Amino acid sequence: MPSRFLPRTSGPVAFGVVVVATLILGALAGVAMGMLHDVDSSDLLRMGGVSIAFMAVALATGVWWWGQIDEAAREAHKWAWWWGGSCAMGLAAAVLIAFGFVHDVLPASIRAAPPEHLILGGGYFVLICELIGYSVAWCVWWLRRL
Predict the structure, then answer these.
(1) d(Cα 127, Cα 28) in Å, to the nearest integer?
(2) Alpha helices in 10-114 (DSSP H)
(3) Is the pLDDT of residue 12 over 70?
(4) What is the reported pLDDT for 91?
(5) How many CB atoms lie within 10 A of CB 5?
(6) Which of 30, 60, 88, 106 could in theory staple to 110 by disulfide, Cβ–Cβ 3.0 to 4.6 A?
(7) Which DSSP category does 1 fall into?
(8) Residues 15 and 62 occupy one common structural domain
(9) Assigned domain for 131 exists
(10) What's the CA gap between 117 and 67, in Å, rounded?
């Protein structure tokens, strides 16, 4: 009896397809958000809808991808997100809190920025720190098993 599940895809071709699809979706998201950037706040619902649609596609792709990888790769990703992401998030929070106390060392352009830009910048800073921490921890996980 044939399996009702799709065959597993792996290897460099499947990896390349996922990378290219991710780059295309990222570019489309960037173009869409760039086009909606200068609209007034009455179009916030439309901007939110576009964001939700892209996140739904990203989530579906992630669920599909998670089902394709083996147990070792899953464990590497879980370990890297837990240790790398958590440690980096703590470090980012410490840096942001420290800048709150010693804001005189920040450039004048940052001190004069509107609060919404500072909030977005802080969020991006934490996200970038988490991605770097994840990447380092992921490499460490695999290097320890060579």
Answers:
(1) 20
(2) 12-36, 44-68, 71-79, 86-101, 108-111
(3) no
(4) 96
(5) 7
(6) 106
(7) -
(8) yes
(9) yes
(10) 38
Given a contact cutoff of 8 angstroms between Cβ atoms, the answer to whether 96 and 58 are in contact is: no
User: Same domain, yes or no, for 134 and 95?
Assistant: yes
Secondary structure of residue 4 in the 3-state scheme: coil
Cβ atoms of 141 and 79 closer than 8 Å: yes
pLDDT recorded at residue 82: 96
**Alpha carbon of residue 104 to chain centroid:** 31
Compute, in degrees rounded to 10, the torsion defined by CA atoms 90, 76, 58, 96.
10
The Cα–Cα gap between 21 and 139 comes to 24
Residues 117 and 106: their CA atoms lie apart, in Å, by 15
Q: Terminal CA-to-CA distance of the chain, rounded, Å? A: 39
What is residue 85's DSSP assignment?
I
**81 and 54, same domain (yes or no):** no
Tokens standing for residue 115: 């609060």
Q: Give the chain's mean pLDDT.
A: 83
Q: Could you give the CA distance from residue 108 to residue 111 in angstroms, rounded to a whole number?
A: 5
Q: Are residues 108 and 146 in the same domain?
A: yes
Q: What's the domain range around 62? A: 9-69
In a domain, 100, yes or no: yes
Mean pLDDT of the region 96-124: 87
Burial of 24 (0-12, 13-18, 19+ CB in 10 A): exposed
